[in-house]
Structure formats: structure tokens, C-alpha cells
Amino acid sequence: MAVRQEEANRRELVNDLLHGRSDLGRLAERAERFGLRLAAGYTVAVAVADEPYLEGAPASHRVLRELTGRYDDRTLLLAARDGRLVCIASDGEAPVLTAFTELALRPGPGYTAARRVATGRRHAGTGGIVRSYEEALAALEYAQRLKLPAQRLRAEELLVFPVLMRDRSAMADLVRTVLGPLTAARGGARPLMETITVQAEAGYVNAETARRLGLSVRALGYRLERIRDLTGYDPADALHRYTLETAVMGARLLGWPDQPL
């Protein structure tokens, strides 16, 4: 009963820390019982899987058991929240986050493996914990919308996307202006948008782009001509490339063409 009560208290503390609206004095006092100094810096990592993480479920329990077996449990907090697995690590505990990521992605046979793990940036204080948590959630959301293949995400590597989406109306205008004409293509805008994305990922090497798309180089050339003719932007021009890539990223973030702008 004592162990269960301590786990319940720890879960409640994690929820209050991530909620960010509890009384700070009382929150700091409760945190000190677990050896946490809220004035220090903290980093939050969040794991998501195809199945929701539940408190006390085998996958969550295994990660907690492994982490507390390797590290001082006064330097970390772990809990399931909203179907995700959340790890809060204090200053100087980068190995904890690395171990959390590895355990979540590769928990072993019979356990639910995470699809992605995102880590926020380090911030100080209780407000810093909330901020790091929100950064990790935002990284997961961007990765899902953009269909990024990476399993490990760091918020600082995705800072360009909040900048792009800060002016939503301007981004919508860019997508309409640059990519709107692609809807007139046979098959719609999607194949040509995919071509823009894959060509960028392939470093603008046509042979590699064609291989990844399952096309002949000649068929790829036809697609690139269609993009140029319909939009007026030439993928062979450096500035035009940047505009096309940015517009495609914005379209994915806005859900276009499935969602109207």
C-alpha cells in the first residue's frame, strides 16, 4: 500500500508539473519530497506509440523499472499522461533521456514499442517544465503532419516550423498562390507535391529522386516540367526551390489539399 501510495503521489506531481497551474510554493514543497529542486533546469521527453500508454501497464512499468534501476530516481519523474509516456529529467541527466528514448523505442519482446520520442529544450523552474513539455508535444505534432521518418526528435531541430506557422494567414496565402495551380494537374496536386519533397530529400539528384519515386528519369522530367509550367516556379532555380519546399511544408502543416484554406 505504501508503494502504491508513493506511485500515486508521483503521478499526481507529474500531472501538476505539466499542468502548470498549481500553487508554486506547495508544488515546490511536494517536489522536494522526491528530491527535486524546481529552481534547477529540467528537460522533458515524450514517447508516443500506436497504442496508448496506460499507468501501470507493462510497457510503462518496464521503462520505469529500468530507469530507476540505472539512475537515482530523485533526478527523474516518469508517468503516463494522455496516452503518452512522459519523462522529466533534471540538470546534468542527459543519459536519463537517452536511456528513456532507447527503452521506449526498443522495450524488448512482448512490450509496446514507441513510434516516436520527442525531447523539449532545457528550461529552469516549474514554468520551464511546462515549456519543455509543450515543445516536445509540438515536435511530435509537426512530425506527424509532415510525415517525418525520424523516430528521435529534438525540439531545437524543429524550430523552423513554429516560425513558419506564426503567421497562419500568410502561410495559407503562400500555399494557395504557389501550389494552388497544381490542382489542375492530372491526378491532382499530391503527386507533384510528393515530387517536390522527394527531390529535396534526394539532394536534387534526378536519378536518385526517380528511384525513390519509382519513376523513370524521363517521367520525373515530365513531372518537373509540369510543376514549372503550372506554378511558374522552376525546381532548377535555387530561390524557386526554397519557395516550393516551404509551400509544401506549409501545405502539410495546414492539411491542404484535404482541408480548405
From TrEMBL:
InterPro entries: CdaR-like_regulators, CdaR_GGDEF, PucR_C-HTH_dom, PucR_C-HTH_sf
Annotated organism of origin: Kitasatospora putterlickiae
Protein name (Swiss-Prot/TrEMBL): PucR family transcriptional regulator
Protein family (similarity comment): Belongs to the CdaR family.
Coiled-coil residue windows: none
Domain CdaR GGDEF-like: 20-141
Gene3D superfamilies hit by this protein: PucR C-terminal helix-turn-helix domain
Domain of life: Bacteria
Domain called PucR C-terminal helix-turn-helix: residue spans: 192-248
Native organism taxonomy: Bacteria, Bacillati, Actinomycetota, Actinomycetes, Kitasatosporales
